[in-house]
Amino acid sequence: MSEYTVLSEISCAKIAPEAPLEKMCLFGCGVSTGLGAVLNTCKVEPNSSVAVFGLGAVVSSRVSRFGLCCIIVSKVMASFYQGLAVVQAAKMVGASRIIAVDINASKFQAAVDLGATDCVNSAELDKPVQQYIAGDLTQWGVDYTFDCTGNTSVMRAALECAHRGWGTSCVIGKG
Hints:
alpha/beta; 3-stranded antiparallel sheet; 5-stranded parallel sheet
């Protein structure tokens, strides 16, 4: 994170000083991008299988009364865990299996609280995560994968976890 940054005026929205940042952060990129990827871009159907790669940084998370996990970065800036938004949106549409993938197991409880059915720590596997998901956890892969990391190696792994023949892989990234 940075203390200062340069942005185009069109990319900014003024927030009233009295507005609670733990609620205003819900209007940021993470929520709209994560939910939009599931609901609008991929149009995930009920009973689908989903794998989400990258659950976001863990600093001081909490589940708000809206059921969304936010991180308060400072009094001026807040952002959302994009991967957890994908998990929650997949649960909202009725996905039957939601696999949360990350290298930090401390993020898994929040993922489970928001709807993940399986958690995979890819750093602890004795084989590539794509072989584990599309081989051990499932026979041919999942219906939808979402990369929320922006890491090209993870993007490739997510693509290779998409079901052969009809799977869809969505690269959300992290900018």
